[in-house]
DNA sequence: GTGCTCG
């Protein structure tokens, strides 16, 4: 297999653009570490290699339809068979693992690669395997313990799937006692007023702490607290600053989200000395991280294309071979296919993380059938965690569908909301950049503090808008999909879907900007005759979140492609 | 349709 072949396989079935990636592929070949087995350092070969042969099946679901647990049986037989296959695979692995555990020497610490995690209780059981007397009572103890864990998970609606999933964490203090988290970080947490973990943090943190190399984690969570859920184990895992170059990379779909994550990391690691970096401008960063620079950095937060730009320099201005953790935030967006899709960009970055112990974690609020299928097919040792029902909107948001007739009706209804007196801040979502501009010009003369954000504005403008929206100077912010994901504004009171969302997933992301951290929020969605095709799937989401919806909408026929 | 390098 030559480098091009290899690279094509690594591209996860993404369209292979020879012109664009030829250079990468060639470099990949020359960068192969000397004297190492090909299959070893590039564990990602398996990871992507299967993709080209097992390209995910056409999805049986209707376009944009959310796959609910209850509806899963509706999906085609193909999917079912696939799930069964995966289950069999998991069982085999489970058996293998328990075999390893049985032959392990009782007094040796069981930290080998075969056993990913053993609780204290498990260790006791191993130690006493030959002493039958206490064996039974210990078994009972273990059973009780498992029941307790199950109860905690049920209480917080934590669902896990995969083998060797560690127990949930109940207090942040356990991080210090169990994982030697820097005491200063714990103090920073307390200073920020964070005293107990949210459900996603309870499960994702211990999971990331126990994970082996080559294990991947998929985390689905509609609640806030995701950023902390991966930042804490990351800092805990890196222990302290080291001059090895970047050891962790976090990829976000928008610059705004990257900035937010970066700031969270700074706040969290204050006083510990970790060198956290965000690429503000790739051309500047080229000097900063280039071959001549010393390797005094630890964590990188960035959008994908900036990383790629640096990797494409000759010689590469960024070295990711010491990366131990690769975290993909809002991964469903980043897995989206498109003409110049995020997916190929991710493939390039995965490739560049060529270290021997890369762990990967994917975080997202929603799970498109695409992402899940892809993960199941391509990742070994996949563990998934999801909180609550998958693909549902948060329950703290009061949701409403409003028929406005036609385009003109939207403006009338919008003015109506404003005149009736609304509680700012309000986030208004539109379909395109042009429509964002138009609506802005309509509203700017109304005497309300309104501004607009989209990717065509300069970075300076974007930063300013976000800042003044956070500080309350802007009451109404018109935006495109740019702000749909992950951005955490404190106390957005109303999300207005001025243009109908393009899918149920998009809808869930948009309204997730309100009702955060347990606060009450409201979401109003305008619809016209033209929006009928997607009305049903979104009405379903709203209904499932417990908000009233007219029955006739649910009765609409499913759309088929 | 949206968002992701540089100049």
Chart the SSEs and their pairings:
Layout: H1 3-10, H2 18-30, H3 44-53, H4 77-103, H5 120-127, H6 132-155, E1 158-161, H7 173-179, H8 183-191, H9 199-210, E2 216-220, H10 226-238, E3 248-251, H11 255-268, E4 276-278, H12 282-289, E5 299-302, H13 304-312, E6 325-328, H14 331-334, H15 342-352, E7 359-364, H16 369-378, E8 382-387, E9 397-405, H17 407-420, E10 426-429, H18 433-443, E11 450-453, H19 459-471, E12 476-479, E13 494-497, H20 504-511, E14 521-528, H21 532-544, H22 551-554
Parallel strand pairs: 2-7, 2-8, 3-5, 3-6, 4-5, 6-7, 9-14, 10-12, 10-13, 11-12, 13-14
Antiparallel strand pairs: 1-8
This protein binds one DNA strand of 7 nucleotides through residues 253-255, 279, 281-283, 286, 303-310, 312, 333-334, 336, 338, 340-342, 345, 431-433, 454-455, 480-482, 484, 502, 506.
Descriptive account of the structure:
By secondary structure, the chain is an alpha/beta fold. It has 2 domains: 3-387, Rossmann fold, CATH 3.40.50.300; 397-554, Rossmann fold (3-Layer(aba) Sandwich), CATH 3.40.50.300. Helices cover 45% and strands 12% of the residues. It is built from 22 helices and 14 strands. It has helices spanning 3-10, 18-30, 44-53, 77-103, 120-127, 132-155, 173-179, 183-191, 199-210, 226-238, 255-268, 282-289, 304-312, 331-334, 342-352, 369-378, 407-420, 433-443, 459-471, 504-511, 532-544, 551-554, and strands at 158-161, 216-220, 248-251, 276-278, 299-302, 325-328, 359-364, 382-387, 397-405, 426-429, 450-453, 476-479, 494-497, 521-528. The protein has an 8-stranded mixed beta sheet with strand order 1-8-2-7-6-3-5-4, with helices on both faces. A 6-stranded parallel beta sheet has the order 9-14-13-10-12-11, with helices on both faces. Strand 4 (276-278), helix 12 (282-289) and strand 5 form a beta-alpha-beta unit. Helix 1 (3-10) packs across helix 2 (18-30) and helix 12 (282-289) packs across helix 13 (304-312). The longest helix is centred in the N-terminal third of the chain and has 27 residues, at 77-103. Mean pLDDT is 76; it is low at 1-117. It binds one DNA strand of 7 nucleotides through helix 12 and helix 13. Residues 396-557 form the Helicase C-terminal domain. Residues 174-202 form the DEAD-box RNA helicase Q domain.
